[in-house]
Amino acid sequence: MSTAGGVRLDALDGRSMLRDHPGLFLAGEMLDWEAPTGGYLLQGAFAGGRAAAAGMCDWLRDTGG
């Protein structure tokens, strides 16, 4: 079971970027998400990390970074 606590999901945009701090992307246990992962907690963290990395690449492309 993943644990609750961390940054609320509504504080992020669709790219996993913190709305109040452009350029700061969050994933995994930094987020407030709770699910019966049943041994797949690492997979959830890896998938969230990949999604945040893709969001960061999109943001960099959009901002010319």
From TrEMBL:
InterPro entries in the record: BaiN-like, FAD/NAD-bd_sf, RsdA/BaiN/AoA(So)_Rossmann
Pfam families in the cross-refs: HI0933_like (PF03486)
SUPFAM superfamilies: FAD/NAD(P)-binding domain
Ranges where the RsdA/BaiN/AoA(So)-like Rossmann fold-like domain occurs: 3-54
Domain of life: Bacteria
Signal peptide: none
Transmembrane segments: none
Record-given protein name: NAD(P)/FAD-dependent oxidoreductase
